[in-house]
């Protein structure tokens, strides 16, 4: 948690330049119609932001400023959070392995802010800097990108991965005052079937609604029981 406090939260608090797009210029930046979901009825367990961030188990491994994706980055003041899945089923395709691939240049045409697996979250980019993850300028220039691992290794628990990503999303929502309607799947920007494990017939449906219910619950845990929907 100490590393997150010194590095990641500093980036979270950083104020970037204004967005290159406005709601009037791009329809994707309008507040989306909320996906229907049933709020979790679990008893709220109050947490501080630091506590919930610690539960995410965030490791900070920022890509080199000289890497190709970062050389083309812009200032980011996020108003959306975009959820992805890696579509990499290799047994070794963990959050840390994806971080190594970004760092050593094996992945040179994409970048995103966080990768989550069942054990940890790895931060790859400063949070005041854009990544290449949404497949559209509007998505890249206005959102934080979170990738969820799909590694099929022995004992892999995808529900833990999704739950960890939900906790991280709640932390970012609270820090940036982002409405739950601005937590969107990659599908929102390009109609891509992503995050595929949480889509239904290639579109947001019951599984995506389940994920939002988790995010909403954890947000209420750090916001005195009050939602931001």
State the main characteristics:
single chain, 229 residues, alpha/beta, six-stranded mixed beta sheet, two-stranded antiparallel ribbon, 8 helices, 8 strands, 34% helix, globular, disordered N terminus
Strand order of the largest sheet: 1-4-3-5-2-6
Task: Please report the distance between the alpha carbons of the first and last residues.
Answer: 28 Å
Note the run of SSEs as H and E. Answer: HHEHEHEEHEHEHEEH
Strand fraction: 5-15%
Major β-sheet, in short? 6 strands, mixed
What would the average pLDDT be, to the nearest integer?
88
Shape: globular
Q: What share of the residues lie within helices?
A: 25-40%
Tally of individual helices: 8
Element layout with pairings:
Elements: H1 2-13, H2 49-56, E1 58-60, H3 68-71, E2 80-85, H4 95-104, E3 114-116, E4 121-123, H5 137-142, E5 143-148, H6 158-176, E6 183-185, H7 187-190, E7 199-200, E8 203-204, H8 206-221
